[in-house]
What we know:
The chain is an all-alpha fold. The protein contains 7 helices and no strands. Residues about 1-5 have low confidence and may be disordered.
Amino acid sequence: MAETSNAQHVLKSQANWDALYFYQKSDVIYQLAFAFCERFIHLYKDRTRDQVIQAARSCKQNIVEGLADGVASTEMQLKLLNVARASLKELREDFEDYIKSRHLQFFVSGEPRYADMLNYCRYHNRLSDYAPFFAQWTDEQMCNYAITLCHFIDRMMMSFLKKLEQEFITEGGIKERMHRARTGYRQQQDERLKQLEAELPCLKQALAETQAEAAKWKAAFENLKQRALKMYYGKEEEIKRLKELLGEEI
């Protein structure tokens, strides 16, 4: 039986995370953090190096894992995306601490460089938009751009999480979808069974009428056959007598 158009589905569609702006920016923030550590944090003398790189990586990788797990489990997707946000906040804190501990400057509202940075981070998402600057920016610039990107990613992820939250409220988790899908399938089978059972008496009556009609035509055929044979044998006898009669006259 063909699947109905309103059939329930257990698995959700796979999200194309590469098309999501917050994932694209998370890729940027990871590469920026790595380049920053390579240039400004000593490989052996500062443990912050590994923490910054791992926090940036955790953000990006948990986004991917969360969106992949979302095919089956909205609950797991929500958890992993929130882990990504937590890693992002840790990363932002590390960049802020770097500025404070080195007595650098935060770009603030009202400054031309702040407006330029904000507009650039708002409208540019791909790594190719930022990578050429990784070897040019000062540590102060890299930190400020990283902090701004962290803010944008967090806001975008919160909007996405609210959307997922609403989906979870209205659609439920995988167990509820499995129950609805199974229940819907059983209901379809039950409805089909009732339909067939309702049609069965009519089909039986039609079959009986057809069999009766067939028997009627069979009887008529047998009657016609017997009449034809009787006529054939009668003609055959008449032909035989006529031949004998003609033979006697000759």
